[in-house]
Design a protein that fits this description.
The chain is an alpha+beta fold. The protein contains four helices and six strands; from the N terminus they run H-H-E-H-E-H-E-E-E-E. Strands 1-2-6-5-4-3 form a six-stranded antiparallel sheet, sandwiched between helices. The chain is globular and about 45 Å long. It starts with a helix and ends with a strand.
Length: 146
């Protein structure tokens, strides 16, 4: 699920980084998309959970994934997904649901698959889009407070 969302965000970010789309028949440039701005690293208060030790924040992907009313913060880690999940289960007191091998959701507020506030942890093994980013992607999502 997140794999497809991350792939779509990466494609949108590439399309929006000033790269014109070419019409395959006409060869004419279509309208250029403005890139979404990168997000600055969030505070732990904004996240509502601690940052995983040693995790690297990706502001460009986070900005590309976030939308009005919802923030999505993306981190990469060199640790295995199981270790990251154990950290968040211990810190939040919530149990992770595993929907596929090494793909987890911890719902902090609301219910999976789209909680109002949640942490997903996924393996990057076999994902060529994020080669060299680490072993695991950590995503914290939070709906805006009304």
């Amino acid at each position: 699920m997140l794999k497809y969302a991350l792939a779509a965000a990466l494609l949108l970010a590439a399309a929006g980084n000033g790269l014109a789309q070419q019409d395959p028949i006409e060869g004419a440039s279509k309208r250029q998309r403005k890139p979404k701005p990168a997000l600055p690293p969030p505070t732990e208060a904004e996240l509502g959970v601690p940052v995983y030790p040693g995790a690297r924040f990706d502001g460009d992907l986070s900005g590309g994934m976030s939308a009005e009313g919802q923030k999505i913060w993306i981190y990469f880690s060199d640790d295995a997904p199981g270790k990251v999940v154990a950290f968040y289960q211990q810190k939040t007191g919530k149990k992770a649901d595993e929907w596929e091998t090494e793909k987890y959701m911890i719902s902090l507020k609301g219910n999976a698959p789209l909680p109002e506030h949640g942490v997903t942890v996924e393996t990057l093994a076999g994902n060529p889009l994020f080669e060299g980013k680490g072993k695991t992607v950590i995503t914290v999502s939070r709906m805006a407070k009304n």
